[in-house]
Amino acid sequence: MTNKNWFIATVLVFVTICAWVVFDILHITAEVEIPPETSKLIEPINPEFNTQVLDS
Predict the structure, then answer these.
(1) What's the pLDDT band for 7 if we cut at 50, 70, 90?
(2) Could you give the C-alpha distances from 51 to 25, 46, 47, 48, 54, in angstroms and in order?
(3) 3-state DSSP call for residue 15?
(4) Which of 9, 7, 8, 27 shows the shortest CA–CA distance to 19?
(5) Residue 9 DSSP one-character state
(6) Buried b / exposed e across 30-50, counting CB within 10 Å, b at 16+?
(7) Which of 14, 17, 30, 32 has the smallest number of Cβ neighbours within 10 A?
(8) Where are the domains of the chain?
(9) In angstroms, rounded to a whole number, what is the distance separating the alpha carbons of residues 47 and 44?
(10) pLDDT in tens, 14-43
């Protein structure tokens, strides 16, 4: 490879790494807030089964 090819490859790798870092930072800083109403709706369900209801 000539020096020009090495330079182009180096620049492309550098740009790729810079874009990767920028997009990773943007991804980390993007926070999604869940509204309180939704938080109440997605509470876990009690896994215990009430057999007394079936007996009556």
Answers:
(1) very high
(2) 51, 14, 12, 9, 5
(3) helix
(4) 27
(5) H
(6) eeeeeeeeeeeeeeeeeeeee
(7) 32
(8) 1-39
(9) 9
(10) 999 999 999 999 998 888 888 888 888 888
- Cα distances (angstroms) measured from residue 11 to each of 5, 14, 18, 21: 10, 5, 10, 15
Whole-angstrom Cα distance, residue 11 to residue 5? Answer: 10
Tokens linked to 5? 């090819």
Residues shown for the chain: 56
The DSSP secondary structure of 20-46, one letter per residue, reads HHHHHHHHHH---PPPHHHHHHTPPPP
Rounded to an integer, what distance in angstroms lies between the CA atom of residue 47 and that of residue 27?
A: 35
